[in-house]
């Protein structure tokens, strides 16, 4: 019974991912589907906005929890959907708020399942390098995690799994995730807000927009600020050692 309680949530998430992929649900998260269904989706969001918002949040939470490939298209779809409803300015803001909240909730579910199954005793048995890695990470867990969320350097689901395994406190995980993904969500929601023009021109969106210097530069700056406490501790430790 204890093993079921410990590993059950992570097994359930794994089964959910296998089911979703075997059913081909991940194929709906694409530009082609969004382009084909654009008129229908616009109609739906204008006539049944609350239903669309509820479905959007639910789908996003589920997709993030089971680490379904292509979830970035849900953020883009948010900008596309809520632009006509809330306007060109507030549409991306609303989409960002819904996407970041949903992604944080889904990430937290995966994090907690991983922490339950792979944390604690398993880390203790691993010892050695894992102990040192855990200690180093937890000295400034918020700064490290915030940096990983800000910069597009690691898969979103991979960070969720690693944070759960390394025993990051729940509050730290939620706060760093909620703050760290906001800029990226806004970039892709804004991209989605203008996607109707791309559809009419027969073009596809540039998913690598976040690597453009004008976007990546500020993110790197924020990441460096997040790491300042760690750098200061390192300098202080070197001074004491000297």
Automatic annotation (TrEMBL):
InterPro entries: TM41A/B, VTT_dom. Residues 69-193 form the VTT domain. The keyword Transmembrane helix applies. It holds the Pfam family VTT_dom. It is a multi-pass membrane protein. Keywords: Membrane, Transmembrane, Transmembrane helix. The keyword Transmembrane applies. The chain crosses the membrane at residues 7-25, 53-82, 89-113, 141-166, 173-195, 215-235. One of its GO terms (cellular component) is membrane. Its main location: membrane. It comes from the Bacteria. It is found in: Membrane. This is TVP38/TMEM64 family inner membrane protein YdjZ. It comes from Candidatus Phycosocius bacilliformis. The gene is ydjZ_2.
């Amino acid at each position: 019974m204890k093993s079921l309680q410990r590993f059950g949530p992570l097994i359930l998430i794994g089964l959910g991912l296998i089911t979703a992929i075997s059913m081909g649900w991940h194929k709906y998260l694409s530009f082609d589907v969004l382009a084909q269904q654009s008129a229908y989706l616009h109609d739906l969001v204008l006539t049944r906005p609350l239903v669309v918002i509820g479905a959007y949040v639910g789908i996003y939470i589920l997709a993030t929890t089971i680490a379904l490939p292509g979830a970035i298209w849900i953020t883009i779809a948010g900008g596309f959907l809520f632009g006509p409803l809330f306007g060109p300015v507030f549409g991306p803001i609303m989409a960002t708020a819904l996407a970041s909240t949903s992604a944080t909730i889904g990430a937290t579910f995966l994090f907690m399942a991983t922490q339950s199954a792979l944390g604690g005793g398993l880390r203790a048995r691993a010892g050695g390098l894992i102990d040192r890695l855990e200690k180093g990470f937890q000295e400034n867990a918020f700064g490290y995690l915030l940096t990983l969320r800000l910069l597009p350097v690691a898969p979103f689901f991979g960070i969720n799994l690693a944070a759960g395994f390394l025993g990051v406190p729940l509050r730290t995980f939620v706060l760093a995730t909620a703050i760290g993904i906001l800029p990226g969500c806004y970039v892709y929601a804004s991209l989605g807000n203008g996607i109707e023009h791309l559809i009419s021109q027969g073009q596809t969106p540039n998913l690598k927009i976040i690597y453009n210097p004008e976007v990546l530069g500020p993110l790197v700056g924020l990441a460096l600020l997040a790491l300042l406490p760690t750098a200061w501790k390192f300098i202080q430790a070197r001074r004491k050692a000297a």
